[in-house]
Structure formats: C-alpha cells, structure tokens
Write a structure and sequence with these properties.
alpha/beta; homodimer; five-stranded mixed sheet
C-alpha cells in the first residue's frame, strides 16, 4: 500500500539529511505499523545497519519472535544480498520495494533470494511501488556528492 | 588457522549451553582477535543474531569503520544467505568456515555469494577447517532435541 511506502520515503529523507545513502523502510504487522527505520551505516559504523535490517530486528523485538511470517516490509530500494538473506532467515511474509537496484539487488535483479526454493525460502515480494520517487532520492543524493 | 577456529568452537559450545543452535565465530584483524560471538537468535528474539553478524557488527564498531577488508572471520558453520550477504556488504577480506551447510549454505554449497562477481563481491573463503568437530556439535544438538 502506498501509505506505508510514503512512510518509508520519509525515512529515506531522514537518511539523506544525515548524510547516509537515502533508503528507508517501514514494517507492518496486519494493518499496524510496527516500526520504521533508515540507513545508518556511516554514523553507526555498522555494515548491517541498513533500513531493512533495523526494521526486522526491531519488529522481532517488539513481537517477541524472530519469525516475521505475518509481516510486510516496505523499503524504498530493492534489498541487497544481506537484507534479502535476512528475509529468508526471518521467514518474512512479504516485501514491497520501490526502486530496482541493478547492481546488487537480490529481490529480482541479480538474484531472487527471498523466494528461492533452493534456499527453502518463501517470502513473497513485488517491486516498483513509487519507484520514480524512491529512485530520484538516491540519484539526487549521488549527484550532490559528485 | 586452527587456533582461531578453536575459539569459534568454544563459542559454539556456549551457544549449545544456552539452548541455541551451536554456531560460533571469531573475527581476526591481522594477527589480533577483535571479537568472538555465538548464535543468540532465540534468547534475543533477533533473526539477525547469528554468530557471524554479531562479530561483524562488533568488529566494525571497534575498528570505527563498516569496511572489514583486512579482517578474517572464522565460523563453525558455512554462512547462510544473510551472513554471506553481510560479508559482501562489509567487504570482508576473508572467511574460513568449518562444517558445510547443504541446506542454506551460501559460501559454496547452495550459492557462492561472498565471491560472486555479479554482486561485485570479492571476499575470499575456504571451508572445511575442523569440519568434523564443528559438524558433530550441531548434529549432537539436534539429536538431543529429538
């Protein structure tokens, strides 16, 4: 749903203000927003502090279970191998992403890890929601830095 | 080196005592042990609390940089897609693992993510160090639970 991706976009804007690659995420359980987060890799010196990982960790803490089968994660950029792998390991129900990542995206672009039967994985996903807005934020960020 | 894998094995034994799937890891920078950790997924309600992720996060914190290019991670079990993906994202220098994981291993068994040129990844790895001891710990854990 667009309203959740709008929250993820707000988070991505927060990341941009903090000098981070602007990627944001929101995690929904049923019809309830459980948490929202943005990329904090540089400021936290943490290679795992992607928006998706921060959301999945926080949701599992709140729900008291590492399994996120009934959750949907909205994220502005197609997940990388680490985040796509975390969806496999948390048995995430669903992922909806915005802009494609042709370089390292592992939800359809380079690989499709979350739905890969050879990994015993079954996270449903779809891409392209508000893709232009999500992509513009990222390309704007890199243009500023050039 | 065997001595680092022995530390990872000690960590795996700690995980077993805590009722966690017994996987342990140690992270080395040059010739110095930076940190050691074991799987804490159940007790932390955290799908990302694998031994490898805990080590990579802690090492990046200690070194003040999310890039772990000069580091070697020793882990008793072949890394899953999430942990293998985290090696890509942290640009980890090297990984040495013990027992193979035919089901979800992504350092050679199902996929080879850390060294995959299509992901622009270049972590070197080798598997099978003290493999029997590493595998026995895990199979013993699951036999006890039957």
């Amino acid at each position: 749903m667009e309203k959740w991706m709008r929250i993820a976009l707000e988070e991505a804007q927060s990341a941009r203000r903090e000098g981070e690659i602007p990627v944001g995420a929101a995690l929904v359980y049923g019809d309830e927003l459980i948490c929202r987060a943005h990329n904090r890799r540089e400021q936290d010196h943490d290679p795992t502090a992607h928006a998706e990982i921060l959301c999945m960790r926080e949701a599992a803490r709140v729900l008291g279970d590492w399994r996120l089968r009934d959750c949907t994660l909205y994220v502005t950029l197609e997940p990388c191998p680490m985040c796509a792998g975390a969806m496999v390991m948390s048995q995430l129900g669903q992922c909806v992403w915005g802009a494609a990542d042709e370089r390292q995206g592992c939800c359809g672009s380079v690989y499709d890890l979350p739905a890969d039967p050879s990994l015993h994985a079954s996270t449903r996903w779809r891409g392209g929601l508000l893709a232009a807005e999500c992509a513009d934020l990222i390309s704007g960020f890199f243009e500023e830095r050039r």
